[in-house]
Amino acid sequence: MQDGFGRQLQAGQYSIMHFSQNVRSWWRAGFVVALLSGSVAMAHAETKEPAFTRVTEIAGQAAIVPMKNPHISLLRILCGHSNAPTFTPTQDEVRKAEATLVPYLQKNVPPRAAMIWQKADEYRRQYGGVIVELGTAAGKTKGKEPRRKLIVNASCRDSSQDWLNMIVAVKDGGSCYYQLTYDLTTATWSDLRINGEG
Known about the structure:
- By secondary structure, the chain is α+β, with helices and mostly antiparallel strands.
- The chain folds into 2 domains: 1-48; 53-194, no CATH class.
- The chain has 4 helices and 9 strands, in the order αββαβααββββββ.
- The chain has helices spanning 4-46, 72-78, 91-108, 115-118; strands at 53-54, 61-64, 86-87, 123-132, 135-136, 139-140, 147-156, 177-183, 188-194.
- The strands form 2 sheets. Strands 1, 2, 3, 4, 7, 8 and 9 form a 7-stranded mixed sheet that branches. Strands 5-6 form a two-stranded antiparallel ribbon.
- The radius of gyration is 30 Å and the shape is globular.
């Protein structure tokens, strides 16, 4: 038979044991919550919006490089318009260009690089906008308004570079890489450049 102190001791031991068990449960729960929170944070980081905007409602893959993005400078250099002022193309402007791209490539791509138009939908195209003065290097042609043009850098899917966050630029690479320009006023393509073979 236990006296009052013994019963209090037992009750105290139970309370301590119960509290200890609760602490362990709370700790486990906290660990799980922290783990889940970390997973959510990582998932959020992994799903961060890309720097370039994907173009929708087209057969191929294209993205718009905003005029304020620092990567626009490299895109201008690749396409031969290194000093031209820039603008951000709209989705509709890029769609308009994409609609006539393959026919232009069929007529202007040399036979050795036929995959450029044969597999056009498998290329990833990065679009920027430049404003080009018409005329000579000494100045624009009198009476001629500057032209808004799209500059395009294209790479095949074999490229491992993150094409939605950086300009894909490589030395050589052959028909896997090309650049060209689209005049929004005349709706014509020009300045096709295909990388050399390494």
